[in-house]
Structure formats: C-alpha cells, structure tokens
Amino acid sequence: MKVKDKDFKIYLTKDEIQSKVGDIAQAIGADYKDECPLFIAILNGSFMFAADLMKKIDLESEISFVKVASYSKMESTGNLKELIGLNENIFNRSVILIEDIIDSGKTMENLLEKLTELGPKSVEVATLLIKPEALATNLKIKYVGFEIPNDFVIGYGLDYDGLGRNLEDIYQVK
Ligand code: IMP
Ligand code: MG
Q1: Residue 100 maps to which CATH number?
Q2: Which 8-state DSSP code applies to residue 60?
Q3: Nearest residue by C-alpha to atom 15 in ligand 1
Q4: Is the CB of 155 under 6 A from ligand 1?
C-alpha cells in the first residue's frame, strides 16, 4: 500500500490489535477494581486505541483528552509543545495515560513530569505500541500492547504526515 512517497506492508491485523486491547483492558480492570481511574488519552494518535480500550473497560471510570505534539513527518523533534486541554483536576486521582506509541519516550517523559506536578495519586501509562530500540529514556510503562522494531508504522490512529489514521490494521514501512 502506498501513502504519499512510501510503501507500507501489513504488520498487525485488526484482530490481533483487538485481542491485545482486550488483554490490556482486562489487566487494567483487575488493577483498578476498587478505584475510579481517570483515563487521559493523548491526541491525535491514540483516538482509536482509546475508543476501543474504553469499550472494553469494565470499571467506573472517566476519560479526558489532551493534545501534545512533538513529531514532524517521520522523525521525532523531541520538543514537547504545550499540553492542551486538561480541564480535570487530577489531584489525588488515579490517572492512566493512553498513548498510541512510545518511540524515543521524550513525549511521555515530558508529559509525566508535567502531570506529576499536579499531585495525582498515581500515574500509569497504557501504550499500544513501543519501540524498545528507539527508547532514549528509562520510562517504566505498565501496560504495553506490542513491542515493535524501530520502523515507521501507520494505521489505527497513527499517521504519516496526517494520512493513514483511519486504517483498521497497522502497517509498517517497507
Ligand atoms: P516520542 O516522543 O519519540 O516517544 O514520540 C512519540 C510520538 O511520535 C507518538 O505519540 C506518535 O504520535 C509519534 N510516532 C512515533 N513513532 C511513530 C510511528 O512509527 N508512526 C507514527 N507516529 C509515530
Ligand atoms: Mg501519540
């Protein structure tokens, strides 16, 4: 499949993704059984993962959305732009961040620093994908869907220069 100037091949099918999202929902459900966690989905990339995850979460819970951006086309700039849209008071809340992919980890590290200053009871991260070889920080991520090689992927919320977010499967650049 071609998107702009790049060729992509199928990498994770929608069935594999849905089954993994179910596993993550179950793990979170067990860990937060007596709490009312606040999920915070990081837009844009996590919108599909967040929607599917929330449908499978069997917990009293809330969800909110924030936006950050540190990526330009295919390389991480490392500069976290402003955190936009956090209207909830997270003081003393159990927070679970929902992310599509952790690459260098800089976006997440930055965000965790900002959120920790607001005094939550706890903050954990659920990411669908992680690229361990690209990780440049020592982040502890509690819920990981798939560990993937350091190749660019699109689909299921992830984009290449704005395109491909609508795909139900995940594709890897050839
Ligand atoms: P990090 O700060 O380097 O960890 O970059 C994280 C962000 O970069 C993610 O939230 C994505 O939006 C984007 N990103 C990283 N790798 C990919 C990829 O393979 N495809 C699409 N977006 C990516
Ligand atoms: Mg993202």
Answers
A1: 3.40.50.2020
A2: S
A3: 103
A4: no
pLDDT digits (tens, 9 = 90+) for 127-162: 999 999 999 988 989 999 999 999 999 999 999 999
Q: Could you tell me if the CB of 125 is within 6 A of ligand 1?
A: no
Kindly report, residue by residue over 27-71, the tens digit of the pLDDT: 999 999 999 999 999 999 999 999 999 999 999 999 999 998 655
Total structural domains in the chain? 1
**DSSP 8-state secondary structure symbol assigned to residue 163:** B
Ligand 1 pocket residue status of 128, Cβ below 6 Å: no
Indicate which residue's Cα is closest to atom 10 of ligand 1.
Answer: 101
What domain range includes position 68?
Answer: 2-173
**In 3D, which of 145, 119, 148 has the Cα closest to residue 46?**
145
Task: Give the atom of ligand 1 at the shortest distance from the alpha carbon of 110.
Answer: 2
Rounded distance from Cα 160 to ligand 1 centre (Å): 10
Report which residue type is found at 155.
G
CA 72 to chain centre: 17
Active site residue 7: no
Helix (H, G, I), strand (E, B) or coil at 109: helix
The ligand that comes nearest to the alpha carbon of residue 41 is 2
Dist. CA 109–CA 107, nearest whole Å? 6
Instruction: Name the residue with higher pLDDT: 171 or 85.
Output: 171
